Every structure is written in structure tokens, then in C-alpha cells.
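Trying the structure run again after the queue cleared.
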Amino acid sequence: MSISPDDFDPLAVVVDWLDACRRGNLSALLNLYDEQAVLECDCEGVSITGRKAIAAYWAPKLESKGASADRHYRLRTFDEMPRAPRCDDP
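Done. C-alpha cells:
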């Protein structure tokens, strides 16, 4: 079953992702990734491709006692995101 672009709710995906992290639910977290998804983590300098590799990346993080989306993962607002250079930049 595919989801039409009109039915996709990106905010709901973020909430589901955070909930899965908070619960330590690897299965729920992996359900949010495509089989060929690419996960890029700037904080660790890694790029991981595929759901199996993503599972190997997340499993120890979710199993650790201190795993918490509130403590370890922070979403940046658009204001905090780096701005791409524009054509009219000096």
C-alpha cells in the first residue's frame, strides 16, 4: 500500500520516530525507513544504507540504559539550519 503525497503527514512521522526512540522500539523505528534508506549522522560522521544496516546502527543505542530521544537527539528548527548559498551572495 502506498501513501499519496496528499495523505503524507511529515509531522506525524517525526512524532512516531521520537516515540519509537523513547520506547526503545527498534521494530517501530525501522518501519519508518525504506529498505534502501540512507541514514546520515553528522555527529558520528557515518552514512548508512539499507534497513539492516540502520538496524545494526540503532540497536545498541536503543538498548543502552540511557537511550532517550529527549537527551540524545534534538531536532533543529528551520532558523537553526545552515543556509544554502544563493546566487546573489557576494
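The two ends are 48 Å apart (CA to CA). Worth checking whether this holds up in the mutant runs.
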